[in-house]
Amino acid sequence: MTVQEAIANRRSIRKFTDQPVTRELLLELIEAARLSPSGCNSQPWRFRLVTDHTDIEWLGGPATAGQRWVGKAGAVIVCCVDTSAYLCDSRATIRALREAGLMTPEFAQDVDESYLKPAESGPPGLLRGAASLNLAIAISAMMLRAVELGLGTTWIGRLEEKLIQERLGLPEGLGVAALLAVGHPAEDPAPRPRKPLDEILV
Ligand SMILES: Cc1cc2nc3c(=O)[nH]c(=O)nc-3n(C[C@H](O)[C@H](O)[C@H](O)COP(=O)(O)O)c2cc1C
How many domains does the chain have? Predict the structure, then answer.
């Protein structure tokens, strides 16, 4: 399968068979996330694999505003941003990029002054937004890799963060930005409508 085919064939899948999703397959998705690019190579993403049926069923309740179909997924990947480690990790990876000759000292200094420091002293939402942008790339990679592996996924943005953090006992400092429902597809939906090219080329 080519990347183009994976992009064209991907759909949000909300009906799954009862076939469990093996840990091996889930780790293939995490590997796709792990290899994704991120600003300053900061990699602010963290993931919790939820495979326990009771927890999955629970996620289909108030935690996702009653999106019952989530409860029938084979697994759910809780996609988090680590805003507490983000700046420290960014500074470390900037050093590594500098040492590898991929960033000039001037550029590294500027990234710190005009990107990291404002994020550090700005509202918490700024850091979370930047980390979430990076996480989105990793989630996209997982969704495309899933197509190649014959799995279906749906990105779930409608969620109750506090409920999920408490139920799953997630470490302090992790923000839940999205859930990725994963399973063996029990539906083959037609492509969903998209805006025409002339509307998105500005
Ligand atoms: C940021 C984001 C949040 C989303 N949140 C939800 C959600 O909470 N529930 C849901 O059923 N689908 C959700 N979706 C899936 C979209 O509805 C879906 O991608 C869109 O309708 C296009 O359909 P397609 O993915 O099949 O091409 C979300 C997608 C994205 C990218």
Answer: 1
